[in-house]
C-alpha cells in the first residue's frame, strides 16, 4: 500500500515534471532495473477484461458527449466517435477465449472502472470531450504497449483492433473549434487535462499492479515504461494549443 | 391544419382501434383512393435528412440506455444496440448525394425530431429500452416502406442499410428478462407502448406530410399504408407479453 501512495504522489505532479522524471533515470536501464510494459505477460482474459471495462467507460462518455453537444454539427460529428468505440468494444469481445464470458472477464475490473468514470466525467460538455480525447489516447497507447507481452497471435489481433480506427482527429477538431470560439476555455481545459492525465496514469498503474499491489513490477521500475505514453499525450495537448 | 388535428385525434386511439380502422376501409382501395407509402416519391436528400435526424434521436436513447442500465450485463448487451445504430447512421450519411452535407439534409427535420425525442424519452430505464425497441421497430418499417418510392439504386442501398443488422432481438431479451423479474412492470410497459405508438405514428405522418400539411396525400388515404407497420408493432408487443 505504501508503494501505491508513493505512485499516487508521483502522478500528482504535472505531466511536464512526470515526463522529466521519466526521462531522468536512464542509468536505471544500465542497471538492468528498467521494466518495459511489453515485458510483462498479462493473461489474455485479464488483459481484455480490464480493457473492456475501460472501453465501457469511454463509450458512455462518448454517448454523453453526443447527447449534450451544444450544436447539431458537434452532435453529428461525435456520433462517429461513438461508432468507433462501440465497434472496438464488439471487436475486443470477440478476441476473448471461447470459454470466457465478457461479463466474467470484466467483473473484477468493473468497480475500479466505474470510479475512474466518475473521476474523468467532466463538469460540462467541453470537459467531457477533452476527457474522451485524453483518456482514449492514453489508454489506447498504454494497452497497445501492455499488449506487447501477450501471446503472438493475441497480440497482433489486439493491436489490429486498437489501431484500426481512431476518433482522435475528430475530437481534436471539436476541441480546437471550441477553444477558438472561446479562448477563455483554454486555461480551464489545460487544468482539466492535467487532472485527467493523473487519473488515467493511476488507472494504468492499477491495471498492471492490481489494487492489491501484488505485481512483480514495482512502481519505480515501471516509471520509464510510461515515458512514450506521456510524451504522446503532451503532443496531443500541444496540438490543441494547451499546456500539458 | 384541420387535417393534422384530425390525424392527431386518429392517433389518439389505441393501436388495436387503429389497426381495425386500417383494416376497415378495404373498399377505398377498390375506389382507387388508397395510397401506398411506396407510391410516394420522396427526394433522396429529404428522405435521408428525416431518417438521419430520427436516427440521431434513437442513437441518443441507446446511449442513455447503456449509461443507465441497472446491471453490468444489461449495459454490456446494450452496447451492441448502440454499435448497430451508430453504424447505421454512418452508412446512411454515406448514401447522401455528394453535394449534400448531412447537417443541411437534417436541419429542416431536426426541431421536430428533438420534440419527438422528448415525447418518447421515458421516465426510467425500462421505459427507455421499450421506447428504443418500439420506436426503432416502427421507424425502420416505415422508412423501409417509404423508401420504396426512391430511385431504384437509392432504394436498394437504403434497404440494405436498414435491414443489415438489428438490435431488436437483444432489446426484446432485455425487456422480457425485466418483465419476468418484475411482473408488475407489464401494465406500465403496455401503457407506455401505446403512447409510443401514437407518438411515433404521428412522427411518420409528419415525415410524409411535412408540418405544413402541404403533401398531395391526404391523411385518410394514407391510413391503409400504416397497416403492416402497426401489425408488426403489435406482434413485437405480443412477443413481450404486452397488450398493444
UniProtKB/TrEMBL annotation, chains A, B:
<dbReference type="InterPro" id="IPR059125">
    <property type="entry name" value="Ferritin_actino"/>
</dbReference>
<dbReference type="InterPro" id="IPR012347">
    <property type="entry name" value="Ferritin-like"/>
</dbReference>
<protein>
    <submittedName>
        <fullName>tRNA-(MS[2]IO[6]A)-hydroxylase (MiaE)-like</fullName>
    </submittedName>
</protein>
<dbReference type="Pfam" id="PF13794">
    <property type="entry name" value="MiaE_2"/>
</dbReference>
<feature type="domain" description="Ferritin-like">
    <location>
        <begin position="62"/>
        <end position="204"/>
    </location>
</feature>
Amino acid at each position: 500500500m505504501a508503494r501505491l501512495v508513493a505512485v499516487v504522489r508521483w502522478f500528482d505532479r504535472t505531466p511536464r515534471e512526470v515526463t522529466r522524471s521519466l526521462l531522468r533515470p536512464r542509468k536505471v536501464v544500465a542497471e538492468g532495473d528498467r521494466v518495459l510494459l511489453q515485458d510483462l505477460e498479462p493473461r489474455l482474459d485479464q488483459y481484455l477484461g480490464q480493457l473492456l471495462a475501460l472501453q465501457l467507460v469511454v463509450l458512455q462518455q462518448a454517448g454523453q458527449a453526443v447527447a449534450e453537444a451544444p450544436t447539431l454539427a458537434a452532435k453529428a460529428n461525435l456520433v462517429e466517435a461513438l461508432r468507433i468505440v462501440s465497434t472496438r468494444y464488439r471487436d475486443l469481445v470477440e478476441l476473448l477465449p471461447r470459454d470466457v464470458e465478457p461479463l466474467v472477464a470484466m467483473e473484477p475490473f468493473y468497480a475500479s472502472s466505474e470510479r475512474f468514470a466518475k473521476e474523468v466525467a467532466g463538469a460540462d460538455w467541453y470537459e467531457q470531450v477533452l476527457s474522451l480525447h485524453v483518456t482514449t489516447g492514453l489508454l489506447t497507447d498504454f494497452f497497445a504497449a501492455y499488449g506487447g507481452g501477450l501471446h503472438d497471435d493475441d497480440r497482433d489481433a489486439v493491436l489490429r483492433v486498437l489501431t484500426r480506427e481512431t476518433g482522435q482527429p475528430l475530437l481534436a477538431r471539436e476541441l480546437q473549434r471550441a477553444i477558438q470560439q472561446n479562448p477563455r476555455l483554454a486555461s480551464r481545459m489545460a487544468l482539466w487535462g492535467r487532472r485527467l492525465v493523473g487519473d488515467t496514469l493511476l488507472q494504468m498503474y492499477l491495471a498492471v499492479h492490481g489494487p492489491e499491489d501484488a505485481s512483480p513490477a514495482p512502481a519505480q521500475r515501471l516509471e520509464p515504461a510510461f515515458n512514450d505514453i506521456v510524451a504522446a499525450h503532451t503532443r496531443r495537448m500541444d496540438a490543441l494549443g494547451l499546456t500539458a
